[in-house]
Amino acid sequence: MPIIITWDNNVYGPRQYLEKLVAKSCVLLSQKSLAYIQGSGDHPRNYVFVIDMAEACDVIMHSGNVGSVYNVGSDEEKTNLQVVRDCVLASRLEDPSNPNAYITFVKDREVNEHHYCIDFSKLKILGWTQKVSWEQGIRNTVAWYLDECNLEGWPDYKRGLVAHPTHKAAPDEVLLWPRIIFLCTYQGVVRLAKKNSRYYTCNTQIHTTSA
Which Gene3D superfamilies does this entry report, sorted A to Z (predicted)? Predict the structure, then answer.
């Protein structure tokens, strides 16, 4: 069976479900609410824009070796506090010069790794490079969430806006995180990645492995 596995590092972008830091912060700020920071906010993370993730899937599908594992990461390392501050600056608020005024600190998660990043040099050998900078990606993402019409199809989206959300997948919903196994055509995977940075799908061509 031809299998290629990917691990990706903090994908963000439009259409991401609101339990994630960037998406949640964008919507809270657009609603004139304070954005949450869990703990001190000094946890560093590396971020990959969803279009770069989609193109990484493209490269892996065409040039990757069957049976291999590829990490998809970036050099865009930001602390959680920096991420939310950048969301504030891109949200066209009344006083963006004081981003801390739009942030509230809450209890940290019981399990929250302080720092993790991945080595994606193996993917670079295949020819993939990051094309969307953090500055461009966060501007595009914030602009999408500022348009309230984009959330009309999510009647229950507010459940993701709490400080410590929980998510139970519906019976027909498969969560492709953190591993994706490609058993399908390149077109199917890339359409999925560009459409939904959370990688929720019922597509029978795509399956997951246990962590």
Answer: NAD(P)-binding Rossmann-like Domain (3.40.50.720), UDP-galactose 4-epimerase, domain 1 (3.90.25.10)
